[in-house]
Design brief:
The chain is of the alpha+beta class. The protein has helices at residues 7-19, 24-37, 42-84, 88-103, 131-134, 143-151, 170-179, 211-273, 278-289, 314-323, 357-397, 403-412, 433-440, 462-477, 492-511, 526-531, 537-555, 559-568, 573-580, 584-598, 605-620; strands at 107-114, 119-126, 137-139, 155-157, 183-191, 194-203, 292-297, 302-305, 327-328, 332-339, 342-350, 421-427, 446-450, 453-458, 482-489, 518-520.
């Protein structure tokens, strides 16, 4: 800091500090420093002291202006926020949160009056930690809050418990003490002469609330009272409109039910005449009843659905069949689909908690239409199954008798038997063959029952298709389904040969205890090579030893030779290291590397047998 040589220097320094927002201590130090330096005379020092006091007053005035400006901005922001809120509870929470922030107090809270009871209840608080305090109920005139609610005037105290202006009661003082409050300011929430409640700001220590703070909280309370009153009016209006809409809806529902019944009758009649199917029925009925419809067969399999399929309910179906009409459960309606005494399936309607009589009759009428379509479908399916079954039987029993005729019959059914197809044989002992064939149809271009097994022709990789079909049919039927596959094959004779191989594959899976799986011969390992018509020994070696062969080729190691020596030595480390002329630790390290490449189970009996066979084939190759 430069020395003061003239009054103008000190004044300029005061103005610089004032412009930069310096603290009170920094402004006062200018006068102290000038007096200590002794460069100014008494008159100049006195003038400088007056200037210093003026600078301090200017600083205080500017600080006060900035504080009031910040309060006004916060107040405007609060008014804007409250104006945008429409839910009363949200308005209340916003009020107390803003009050606490604007006044910088420990706790803010708000009570609402109940005129019929003559009491005011603490409704919302911010910063409170006492459950007892949050449940306080104040009678009119009791405590500081009750006095504000009764007189509609603001009251403040710096020490509530030692202030005898208020009527102290045991339960009020207990709650305030439990919260630890000392200084409390309360202002009324009022619309005109009507007091809605009281807004409070409080501290846990002694504090004198200034007139500016009282005015600020009162301004916030005025804005809040208007916003709260508007929210309450809007809430009341909404409830009135809802009640009116409910009454109108009751009248409208009856008219709409009659119109829906007439419309549904026309739509279902037109649907049957146009040759519609079950998905069309489900969509039409769901659209008319404004729900979701699922059609089930007699065993609970989904035949059609308009949305997410519902859950099959055998108990409700039995009740509907016995009553001869639709029945309801907790969240669904169930209607049996019958042709005379014969059960054909069921309809399940979801998304409708109740059905008026017209809608229920429409739902039951949909059951009659569904029965007609199921009977028609049964006739068509039986005719198609006979044709397809005859083709499949002729194809597999006498493929060489008249290949051209078989190809032509396939083309008439939309099947190109000359194209490559995977042939699958499906086995299970717990499900009817007809149901199994029906469930497998989605995966097949041709499906039927041959030699008491379900046989299907499909497209894609045979092994992958077999695994997918086994998993899918197992999930649909709830029983273990084993699938053997062969191919791809094209032409009658090749397809018949592939069928024979797929049948052998199924028998092998069952013999190996792999019930419920699907595979082709390649998926059976070396056993598939022995049973298959076209053994690919190189592929078997590659599938079994591939990672080890690749590692030797990349790194120049001798893992394959180590495997040969290890098995030739009866899996004994000491003999293996003598054959290889290496240390036993080297053998251990190589075997650990082999385990990381082939898997930790490489020494189990089945894997070890496959590996030894692959090693012999690799040496021969």
């Amino acid at each position: 800091m430069t020395a003061v040589t003239a009054p103008s220097d000190a004044l300029r320094r005061l103005l610089d500090l004032l412009a930069s927002g310096a603290s009170t201590e920094q402004l006062a130090h200018v006068v102290v420093a000038a007096r200590a330096e002794g460069a100014l005379g008494p008159a100049d020092l006195a003038a400088l002291a007056d200037a210093g006091e003026l600078a301090l007053r200017i600083r205080e005035t500017l600080a006060e202006h900035r504080r009031r400006e910040a309060q006004l901005v916060a107040l405007f922001d609060t008014a804007s926020e409250l104006a945008a809120l429409s839910d009363p509870d949200t308005v209340l929470r916003s009020i107390v949160r803003r009050a606490r922030a604007l006044l910088g107090v420990d706790v803010s809270y708000l009570s609402l009056n109940k005129e019929t009871e003559g009491k005011t209840y603490v409704r919302v608080s911010d910063g409170s930690v006492s459950a007892e305090f949050q449940q306080i109920v104040l009678g009119m005139g009791e405590g500081l809050g009750g006095l504000v609610a009764q007189t509609a005037r603001p009251y403040a105290t710096s020490d509530y418990f030692n202030d005898d202006r208020f009527r102290h009661t045991r339960h009020i003082d207990s709650g305030v003490k439990d919260e630890g409050l000392t200084a409390i300011l309360g202002v009324p929430l009022a619309i005109g002469s009507k007091v809605l409640g009281v807004l409070f700001a409080s501290d846990r220590g002694t504090r004198e609330f200034s007139a500016d703070e009282v005015a600020l909280l009162s301004s916030l309370a005025d804005h809040a009272a208007i916003a709260l009153d508007s929210a309450n009016l809007l809430d009341q209006t909404r409830r009135a409109v809802a009640e009116l809409n409910e009454a109108n809806a009751t009248i409208r529902a009856h008219n709409e039910a009659m119109e829906r019944a007439e419309d549904a009758h026309d739509r279902l009649t037109d649907l049957v005449l146009r040759g519609g199917d079950l998905p069309d029925v489900a969509a039409a009925v769901a659209g008319v009843l404004h729900g979701a419809l699922t059609v089930f067969d007699t065993e609970g399999a989904v035949l059609a659905h308009s949305a997410e399929p519902a859950r099959h309910d055998p108990l409700a179906l039995a009740a509907s069949r016995a009553a001869g009409r639709a029945v309801s459960t907790q969240d669904t309606w169930v209607c049996s689909v019958q042709a005379g005494p014969e059960l054909l399936g069921s309809l399940v309607l979801t998304g409708r908690a109740d059905l008026a009589d017209p809608d229920r009759r429409l739902f039951e009428r949909a059951g009659v239409v569904t029965a007609l379509l199921l009977m028609l479908r049964r006739s068509v399916v039986r005719a198609e199954d006979e044709v397809r079954g005859e083709l499949l039987t002729d194809l597999l029993t006498a493929p060489g008798r008249n290949p051209r005729a078989l190809l032509a019959r396939g083309r008439r059914l939309g099947i190109d038997l000359a194209a490559p197809h995977a042939v699958l044989v499906v086995h299970t002992g717990d499900v009817s063959r007809r149901r199994l064939a029906s469930a497998a149809a989605r995966h097949a271009t041709l499906v039927g029952v041959h030699a008491e097994e379900v046989v299907l022709l499909g497209t894609g990789d045979p092994g992958e298709l077999a695994r997918r079909v086994a998993a899918d049919l197992g999930a649909v039927t709830g029983h273990a389904v084993t699938v053997g596959a062969a191919g791809p094959a094209g032409g009658p004779e090749a397809l018949a040969a592939a069928h024979a191989e797929a049948a052998r594959c199924v028998r092998a899976l069952l013999a190996l205890g792999r019930t419920g799986e699907g595979a082709d011969m390649a998926g059976l390992g070396f056993l598939g090579q022995l049973l298959g018509d076209q053994a690919d020994l190189g592929a078997f070696v590659r599938a079994t030893l591939g990672p080890v062969l690749d590692y030797d080729e990349r790194r120049g190691t001798e893992l394959v030779a180590t495997l040969r020596a290890y098995f030739a030595s009866g899996s004994q480390l000491a003999r293996t290291k003598d054959v290889l002329h290496v240390h036993v630790n080297t053998v251990v390290q190589r075997l650990e590397r082999i385990a990381s490449l082939l898997g930790e189970d490489w020494q189990t009996p089945d894997r070890a047998l496959e590996i030894q066979l692959a090693l012999r084939l690799h040496r021969l190759g």
